[in-house]
Amino acid sequence: MSSKWAFAGLLLIAFIWGSTFAIAKEVLTVFGPLQYISLRFGITALAALVLWGRSLRHTQRKTVWHGIGLGILLGIGFLTQTVGLAWTTASKSAFITGLSVPLVPLFGSLLGWTRLHRGNLIGTGTALVGFFLLCYPTGGFSDINSGDVVSLACTVAFALHILGTERSVSGSNVAALNVVQLFVCAIFLGLAWGVLFSAHLAGWPLPTAFAREVVIVSVPLKTGIQFCFLALITLLCYRIQTAAQRQVSATSAALIFSLEPVFATALAFLMLHETLGWRAGIGGALTVAAVFISELHPAVALPAKEPAPPTNQRFTT
């Protein structure tokens, strides 16, 4: 995949996530959020196994370990985002999640994985301002609660997942890496839902926000079709991401992903005739500009340090 196709692929992912928001919202009227992501990633993992299971036969051990690490980060990200959303507003959750954009270059630099250029820093700052205007909650953060704190964990997990993907795809079988990370994520989320359901069966009182998670629901045909569509779209998006991040830096990938709310807002304006305020308009424009500013001087991923080969020294007496 060339760098241009990789850039286009990541743009497609941001568009897909933004455009499927309305479908996911409708599915969530039937399922509890944790139920939803557990089953969604379960179906996604099974589909990945059917399509690319053969790639696991000759997979290197490092690819498996990388996939396990990425799957755990992905699971932590979705779990903390879902739990945090139960105790905070959607607008606050969206804004906190978007903070992963500046965290990617920050963590990459601190870990010695990325060499940043001025364009990356300007682009990241511009994206943060744009995201602030686009998603900052009207009520602000004067009433910070436990949901906001939990949501911060998802921000860290998603930032590390983007960085980890950049480090893992080099020299790895992308298909095998995808299968492992999706299966580990599905198991992680399934265990989390299982713990919640077991607590309910044991008679432990659950927070009101999680009451729907332990209800066995009857799924209408339309919702089932939508659910399977979202699961397969998830498979497509992570397959593209792992391939594209061979050519696009983690910093650039994070900036491109920040376009998700821009696409969601634009589609809501065009298709649902929702009102687009001045803040959303300026914020969206700044976020788009940030991607191109950053791409003028893309970040450079530093190669992983390889252990020094042993030297054969001869000693003479």
Poorly predicted segments: 306-317
Strand content: under 5%
- Describe the strand arrangement of the main beta sheet, using strand numbers: 1-2
Percent range for helical residues? over 70%
Between the first and last Cα atoms, what is the distance in angstroms?
A: 57 Å
Nearest-angstrom radius of gyration? 21 Å
Task: Quickly give the structural class.
Answer: mainly alpha
The main sheet comes to:
2 strands, antiparallel
- Tell me the count of domains: 1
Give the helix tally: 13
Helix-strand string: HHHHHHEHHHHHHHE
Number of strands: 2
Describe, in plain words, how this protein is organized in 3D.
It is a single chain. By secondary structure, the chain is mainly α. It has one domain. The protein has 13 helices and 2 strands, in the order H-H-H-H-H-H-E-H-H-H-H-H-H-H-E. The protein has helices at residues 3-19, 21-27, 33-52, 61-87, 90-98, 100-110, 118-135, 146-169, 174-201, 221-244, 250-257, 260-271, 278-296, and strands spanning 114-115, 300-301. The N and C termini lie far apart (57 Å). The model is unreliable at 306-317 (pLDDT under 50).
